[in-house]
């Protein structure tokens, strides 16, 4: 297990570097993409380290898995006792160096602590959301929960069952057209499950370099908001009206950020307002398909699996050098 864990961490680090290179190489190009396609590409970039680690671990372990079915394919006997074995049957002659064991323990402990802190934030946010929804009044005609407060509140909250929360004060202050824009925008968040996707990407940020993680979380949030702005513009038929509603709500909610709900919520009018308005006032960008990207990833996976024997031997050789 020590060797498998060390290999997994190494592959995860490689995936993190690939994600960082991709972010640096394609950041400018991605900014010109249509928001929906950009959002999907950013999610893919966020999960790239995990996908890379899974693909490489599967490929490196494939000869060992096959040897369980066909014992004649087992090659462990051809190695000396000091060789690292990525094998489910034969144990290596010795374990890895104590320094690597301590390093692995530190990494696992750090990741577990980050996961525990993130989970506690989500639990607290869910409790606050539950308290808010119980005090609110469901408006089935609008598809929202109205909070009886004069403070301006406008957000979509909830991971598995997202709901739109609007305060009475903000709802009464909006004109008919602005209300239509806000409702269309928030319903788009519900359909897209943006709060859940954002929460998952924040959880995956632990496997990225800090600078890349911050960029991914920020750009994903902006792309989600712009995608919902486009849906609202399609619903009301007026891009300028959506831009005007964003500015109106931003002025009203400037000092009303629901920080305790942040892990499970997305708020209207409090994210990259200038970029969103500029995008709405410009010509719409044509929709872009990610089919080519998916085919490239599939081809890369097939290539990695096709070189499983070589990758298995290379991984064992590197582990033998590094671990001892």
UniProtKB/TrEMBL annotation:
Presence of keyword NAD: no
Pfam families listed in its UniProt record: Peptidase_M56
Name of the protein described by the UniProt record: Peptidase M56, BlaR1
UniProt KW keywords: Membrane, Transmembrane, Transmembrane helix
Transmembrane stretches, start-end: 37-58, 293-314
Record carries keyword Protein biosynthesis: no
Domain Peptidase M56 residues, every copy: 96-278
